[in-house]
Write the structure tokens for this entry.
Amino acid sequence: AKEKGRNNYQLFNSQMKSASLEKLTMEQELRRAIAKDELVLYYQPQMDIASQRIVGFEALVRWAHPERGIVSPGHFIPFAEESGLIVPIGEWVLKEACRQNKHWQEQGYSPPPVSVNLSTRQFLQHNLTGKVAEVLELTGLDAAQLELEITESSTMDVEYSIDQLHELKNLGVTISIDDFGTGYSSLSYLKKFPIDKLKIDQSFVRDIMTDPNDAAIVASIIAMTRHMKLKVIAEGVETEEQLQFLYHNRCDEIQGYYFSPPLSVEAAELLMKERM
Ligand code: C2E
Ligand code: CA
Ligand code: CA
Ligand code: CA
């Protein structure tokens, strides 16, 4: 038993070591990725259901890894958040999304506004508004072309969030609440936040056709946004049936594979050409 205990201990210890080694390697690789410009943005179109127009592009980061190919954010964003690297990554994403949107305008495209995901660490930075203003100034992008997505979990400190959101709103950018319904949701504070849009999380949308509870939740969120005069977008829409359900429940916009997956810059340009 003693022997077994020691082996377990050694096993556990070596697993711990390799886990932390893996993290360290990941961190070093991520730092290199930022320095070597290996991050790229894909853009997922958002469609207004009634007019069928493209009303937004959500910027989603990918890692163009020299050996592993395109790595999705689920594989590195959690590490980036843990290590704090999400802050430089997020700043790169913000600048690149604004630069690209402005560049498209200069090339004669009519790009919709771009939505950028803000991590909690970014949202908690006191100089965030200054940084956003700086990027808008540097890239020459109109603030009306920028939407910032924050999650409910970033807004635990209600007073701080109200101030931060007011500062950002004063720049002229749009604010949306991402993954709505999955976080700590006190509906009463929502009223106090100067936000423009709710993004209904895809976990509720996925089963709207088969799960009456999810259908009820989605229908209620949409009804609530109408009362609060907020825009609402459903994420993860994959089928015509889901689209019909959302349309009949008067949801404004959709995002999801049904309309389009996230697109490379070239593919987004083709889509804009087709639609212009
Ligand atoms: P998110 O912000 O909720 O982004 C939506 C995710 O859903 C994207 O995954 C998108 O590709 C995926 N998706 C879109 N339509 C559908 C659909 O119809 N069905 C299904 N099953 N999935 C769909 P992606 O690009 O892998 O990003 C995953 C998450 O990584 C994002 O979730 C976001 O939390 C995070 N992320 C991505 N880019 C950034 C970034 O620049 N900064 C930060 N802080 N987080 C980011
Ligand atoms: Ca998002
Ligand atoms: Ca401030
Ligand atoms: Ca989301």
